[in-house]
Write a structure and sequence with these properties.
alpha+beta; Beta-Lactamase; Heat Shock Protein 90; 2 domains; 48% helix; 23% strand; rod-shaped
Length: 522
């Protein structure tokens, strides 16, 4: 019962103590996941969508400008007048600056031979120097003069990629010249992001046409393969950790993909420190909690055992044998008719015994005091059995001052009376008390027929148990009282020697009761 209660209490405490720790761990992990979701995933997704939308919008905007202005410049028969005639020149600049505004976007109006008619600069970038030779972007505009076109062009290998938006200018069904808007990579990069993440616009050949951020993530303007293997997720590159997200966009007449890449190494370090601190706290708290739980469970179980023992002691002490009382009252009833004087003596002895059993003197008494009431008990038995009962006692004088539980010996004598009759119905019972090694040794012996083997085994097993579901209360109560008070090393032994009879021995510690000791009842 003790182990069961302690185990149940231990589990309950462990549950209520460890649940907050587990909740704290789950909440800490959830907070890190939420932080990751908002500070990395959500920000990256927002940057990706913003970059794709801005690049798509600016691309469509200048495709529309190219078509509109090409139609405007095609109205003039003499195409070269846009650069020679001051009024025409001013009108042309007005149109083009209206499109570009204050943005760092260049424009160029070229004739069919590739000569500069007018522009935001006095010289052409290298990738437009060969327009009049019929190759490159000019050749593609010649094939479809009614459609605007966009291409990423570089002045040299490894140099920035500028987005060139252009359209052929037609007059009378013939190509008269070309109009180009040049959107520098720096301008597009500035539009595409706010600097919180690296942004790349990659074509079908993995060329990074637009770079904003860490160029170490590319090899010769090609995005590194580690980032091309997945659309979203973590990428471990060298000693750094990156989070990437991407989406396809229709841009500049081709199929491109926008990549947003964030270096999350520092964030992972912070998460690792936080997770390590949380794990360390949990690992430190759990043993402390388990130790405290075990200690509290043990102490609580011990306290419950003490309360239970006290309650059980009170119950055991209050169980004055009803069978003995009933038989005594029956004998008194007959003795009133046969020997009134003896009946009075029996009543007085019984009264003294009952008063002693329910008195407020505490659980223990000096042996000399308890012996008086033991004699009252045997006096009643003597009246009951008459000359058939021969009771002898042998008391070591040293035992007189020892403290013993009250009325502890009465059940032993009652058992001897119950099983001690010989073949002729006589009862010869001896009660011997000795002191050995500062311990009280009590021996109750009869010369009867002894117990049957089954009955003896039943009693021996009962004395080893902690609960009693049988009718044998007397000896069990003595055993439990002694062991609850002094421990399991003390108690009863029962034997039926070969020469006959039954022997009940009881061992008690030799405890002296102080004269001024005040014992509380219960």
């Amino acid at each position: 019962m003790h182990r069961y209660f302690e185990s149940r209490f231990h589990r309950a405490l462990a549950w209520y103590a460890l649940v907050p720790v587990l909740v704290m761990t789950v909440l800490g992990s959830a907070l890190m996941l939420i932080s990751w979701q908002y500070s990395v995933v959500r920000v990256s997704d927002t940057s990706r969508e913003l970059a794709a939308a801005v690049l798509t919008d600016v691309s469509q905007e200048f495709l529309w400008y190219s078509a509109e202005e090409a139609e405007f410049f095609g109205q003039e028969k003499d195409f070269s007048s846009w650069g020679k005639v001051p009024a025409k020149r001013a009108e042309a600049y007005g149109q083009l600056y209206r499109d570009t505004g204050h943005r760092k976007i260049d424009f160029y109006l070229l004739d069919r031979q590739g000569q500069l008619v007018l522009g935001s600069r006095d010289y052409l970038p290298d990738y437009l120097l060969h327009v009049g030779q019929g190759w490159g972007i000019a050749s593609r505009l010649e094939k479809e003069p009614g459609l605007p076109r966009q291409e990423f062009l570089q002045e040299a290998e490894g140099s920035p990629c500028d987005l060139v938006c252009g359209q052929a200018v037609e007059h009378g069904g013939q190509v008269a010249g070309y109009l180009f808007y040049v959107l520098p990579e720096a301008y597009l990069s500035q539009l595409a992001g706010d600097g919180q993440a690296d942004i790349f616009l990659v074509d079908e050949l993995d060329n990074a046409r637009l770079l904003r951020g860490n160029e170490q993530l590319t090899d010769f303007r090609k995005l590194r393969g580690e980032f091309l293997d997945q659309e979203n997720g973590l990428v471990f590159l060298e000693k750094n950790i990156y989070y990437e997200t991407s989406k396809p966009v229709n841009f500049a007449g081709g199929r491109y993909r926008v990549y947003v890449i964030s270096n999350v190494s520092d964030l992972f370090v912070r998460y690792a420190i936080g997770a390590g601190a949380l794990l360390l706290a949990v690992l430190l708290m759990i043993p402390l909690l388990l130790r405290s739980i075990a200690r509290e469970s043990r102490l609580t179980a011990q306290a419950v055992d003490n309360l239970t023992a006290i309650a059980e002691l009170k119950e055991l002490e209050s169980q004055f044998n009803p069978h003995f009382l009933f038989n005594t009252l029956e004998n008194i009833k007959f003795m009133v008719r046969l020997d009134p004087a003896a009946a009075v003596e029996m009543i007085m002895a019984l009264s003294s015994l009952l008063r002693y059993s329910i008195g407020s003197g505490g659980r223990q008494a000096e042996f000399r005091e308890d012996l008086k009431y033991l004699e009252s008990y045997m006096k009643i038995q003597q009246y009951r059995f008459g000359s058939r009962l021969d009771f002898q006692r042998y008391i070591d004088p040293r035992a007189m001052d020892f403290a013993i539980p009250k009325l502890l010996f009465q059940p032993l004598l009652e058992n001897a009376i119950k099983y001690g009759e010989d073949e002729e119905g006589k009862l010869a019972i001896s009660f011997k008390v000795s002191v050995t090694d500062n311990q009280l040794m009590i021996l109750v012996k009869d010369k009867g027929r002894g117990m049957e083997a089954g009955k003896l085994q039943e009693l021996l097993e009962l004395l080893q148990s902690q609960s009693n579901e049988t009718d044998h209360r007397g000896l069990f109560n003595v055993q439990r009282r002694v062991q609850l008070l002094y421990g399991e090393e003390y108690g009863l032994q029962i034997a039926c020697p070969p020469e006959g009879g039954t022997e009940i021995s009881l061992r008690l510690p030799g405890v002296l009761k102080k004269k001024d000791e005040v014992e509380e009842d219960g």
